[in-house]
Amino acid sequence: MSQSNIYSELTQLGKDTPIPTGPETAVLERVRNPQAGVRYCVRFTAPEFTSLCPMTGQPDFAHMVIDYVPGEWLVESKSLKLFLTSFRNHGAFHEDCTVSIATRLIERLEPEWLRIGGYWYPRGGIPIDVFYQTGAAPADVWIPEQGVPPYRGRG
Questions:
Q1: Catalytic site residue 97?
Q2: Are 120 and 114 in contact, with CB atoms under 8 Å apart?
Q3: Is 60 part of the annotated catalytic residue set?
Q4: 67-96 pLDDT, tens per residue?
Q5: Which of 16, 41, 60, 140 is catalytic?
Q6: Range with the lowest mean pLDDT among 16-20, 67-71, 80-84, 108-112?
Q7: Measured between alpha carbons, how far is 81 from 52 in angstroms, rounded to an integer?
Q8: From CA 84, how far away is CA 110, in angstroms rounded?
Q9: Burial code of 83-102, b = ≥16 C-beta within 10 A, e = fewer?
Q10: Catalytic residue among 16, 41, 53, 67
């Protein structure tokens, strides 16, 4: 498949796309990895992630860091941004949000390896950080530290 054809089935990139009403309606798009024979790490950082507390409806804020070693597929970044933004009206606990993002990416991309760090700002005076990964990081791929400091005004 030629370089230009790997983008032909995308429905959101370059188009006026509304924010999905929730993660269940968000469309995560993928493209063939043109470097599928090369092992490398991809990082997405969302320092202003928001969702809602399912009990109070109050906003919760997190700094999300997603690292993955792609296989045949890459996530299309606009669709990922829209997917992450769809959580802003979604009520779920920190653990559920973080792990749901990981499992959705794993289902769609089938990466060789994936790790997510959900660095949540305090709720009730306690920051709740949530970490998930699919297994041991590949030894031959440089996987940098996520670089988010433990909570102390984080920032």
A1: no
A2: no
A3: yes
A4: 999 999 999 999 999 999 999 999 999 999
A5: 60
A6: 16-20
A7: 17
A8: 19
A9: bbbbbebbbbbbeebbbbbb
A10: 53
